[in-house]
Known about the structure:
Elements: E1 2-7, E2 10-15, E3 29-31, E4 40-43, E5 47-52, E6 58-61, E7 74-78, E8 95-96, E9 99-103, E10 107-113, E11 118-122, E12 129-134, E13 139-145, H1 149-160, E14 173-175, H2 183-195, E15 202-205, H3 226-236, E16 239-245, E17 248-249, H4 255-263, E18 277-279, E19 282-285, H5 292-300, H6 303-306, E20 312-316, E21 324-325, H7 326-339, H8 346-357, H9 363-366, E22 370-373, E23 376-379, H10 387-402, E24 409-412, E25 415-416, E26 424-426, H11 434-449, E27 455-456, E28 458-459, H12 468-478, E29 484-486, H13 502-532, E30 537-539, E31 556-558, E32 562-564, E33 574-579, E34 583-588, E35 596-599, E36 602-607, E37 613-617, E38 621-625, E39 639-646, E40 649-656, E41 670-679, E42 682-690, E43 697-704, E44 709-715
Parallel strand pairs: 8-25, 14-15, 14-29, 15-16, 16-20, 20-24, 24-26, 26-27, 28-29, 39-43
Antiparallel strand pairs: 1-2, 1-3, 2-13, 4-5, 5-12, 6-9, 7-11, 9-10, 10-13, 11-12, 17-19, 18-19, 18-21, 22-23, 30-31, 31-32, 32-37, 33-36, 34-35, 34-37, 38-39, 40-41, 41-42, 43-44
Domain Glycoside hydrolase family 31 TIM barrel: 164-524
Family: Belongs to the glycosyl hydrolase 31 family.
Pfam family, one: Glyco_hydro_31_3rd
Amino acid sequence: MKVYEINEKVLKYRFGNPIKTDAVLMEGLEIKKSKIDYFEVIEGNTVIFKYKMSLEDIILGLGENLRGINKRGGIYESFCTDNPRHTPDVKSLYGAHNFIIIDGREKFGIFVDYPSKVVFDIGFTNRDYLQIEVSDNNFDFYIIKGDSSKEIVKTFLKLIGQSYVPPKWAFGFQQSRWSYKTADEIEEIAKKFIENDIPCDAIYLDIDYMEDFKDFTVSKERFPNFKKFVEDMRTKGFRLIPIIDAGVKIEEGYDIYEEGIEKGLFCTDEKGNPFVGAVWPGRVHFPDFLNPVARKWFGLKYKKLVDFGIEGFWNDMNEPAIFYSDRGLDKAIKKAEESESKNLDIYTFFDLRDEFINLSNNIDDYKSFYHKIDGKIVNHYKVHNLYGYNMTRAAAEGLEEISPNKRFLLFSRASYIGMHRYAGIWTGDNYSWWEHLLLNIKMMPSINMCGFLYSGADTGGFGGNANAELIIRWSQFSVFTPLFRNHSALGTRNQEPFAFDENTTKILRNIIRLRYALIPYIYSEFMKAVKDGGVYFSPLVFEYDDDISRRVEDQLLVGESIMVAPIYQENSKWRYVWLPEDMLLWKVRDYTDRNFEIINKGHNYINVELDEIPIFIRKDKMIIIGKHGKNVESIKNTKLDVLAFIENKCLYVYYDDDGKTCDYKDGKYDEIHIYIEKVKDDFKIEIDNRGNKDVKLINFYIVSTNGKIIKKKVEIN
């Protein structure tokens, strides 16, 4: 074992000769140290780290995974897995995010930089012990020290690099379904958004836009004159976002397939032949994204769609998902033939059934193909969690070469820490279950802690059938997630904002309009989190360290000023809310209303009608409100409203930039510093405009802690 000091807070313990993941950007200097802090280490075929937890310890992190914000009591496997049925006993989802924080008697973070399976047993087998098992002897193990969870996260985010930033229009509402199969269907969806006066920025193209499910193709039958269609949709205010899958169809005459074969850019089997799996098109080969040559080749193929005017993509099926392999299919068919005419008892029937159930995403298949990494042949299982990461890295690097300095919308289903620098994520194929709404709420801060700031769930649920109430309540939470996309599966009920009754359409219209009005605040807070190396969503414990706040699982802080407490139970109009301090409650039906109520610190039971969104403004904080429009680009926020809850004083920095380029990385952005101070029975306001040329007037609604509302207007020079 070698030990490296990254800085005074971070040590890296290197076991063996790890495969380079590019998750961490800092190397550090080797130091003399023989023992790992905090842990008992047991080395064998695997390496086990054991830590005795105290009663007060909470365990945060693990990004996109099951259970609560506090992971204590669960067992989790870090292994990118295509499994839409996220029941409580599931151990792994689409992302592999090996970062946790121990917050209690001792405070420190752990990052296990290993690209295959890692098991985190956090008090499941033995309630007093955290046990981490790495399934190999070659990996990096980081320990990050700090005085608080918030500080540890900031240190970790600095270690792994700045998060991806999408274009500003990607903060608008987005509509998706598997599938809007033709140009006519998409035209009809767009028409209904316009007729119902509901803002929307993007409509998605799922797999049926392709010709026979082949990447980088467009069906001429279903989408004739695609370039003009893209232009026409942009004129109406909508961008089209096509899906790209990991598998390349095996078909003579298909240029992507033939180029990949000719140049040897696909993953291979043990004999060196291109590995054959099956997904949407049937039999496919998988590009070897861990090979830089293959990565560049595939990434530049996005130009085929960029040339049509496409400005955003979602990468799917990139764990990679495998429906079946020839090996598995032959084995299952042979089992069925052997079972023919037999009297199958419970065990022999289960054996037969399991052969077919286990065809998909079979571990034996993942162990049956190989990558070329730095001239060496490496079994896929050893690097499984890097596949989706590097597919999306290929896309990001390709798009940067195709259109330098232009921001594209890009997000992925599978991910590993490090991919956050290239794209966002969505939380995968969920269900229209109330339990998945709650899981979405709990998952967001954990995902942010791992660097993925641009994220969100399939609002309303992908699988299953959502009723109007679930769509409303889920949308009321998704108002605050950077990615706000309604997405549903083939064969399920349509769940667009206009797909239900008239009153539901009205409520959803107001929810989506609120989202657009909040974009000045949401974008400002998102970009400050990126720029300053922080998070956009955080648990209460990041700001309040009382015993109750440490355990709250269903309330989140959004940026620096807002606390949200969504309704996530069916038929509920009330909910319990813990307030660690007095806060200003704004129940929003229509964002132009200004009805406030001060809620006192402590235990509260509040009424929230179906058409209301409870927004809590923290003490000595303010939020920025703009106007809605048909899409983000149509909004010209020359006037802004500030809603503030002031006891003493408050400084808010309103951030903005061009929303299109990466110039923000070079310091090309503007800020308005807004300062409010209570002076006797009045409030003093100071404005320091640092380059903003759009905002001309700010209307202030300032609520004092005694409930008095002061309204003021300030012109901006």
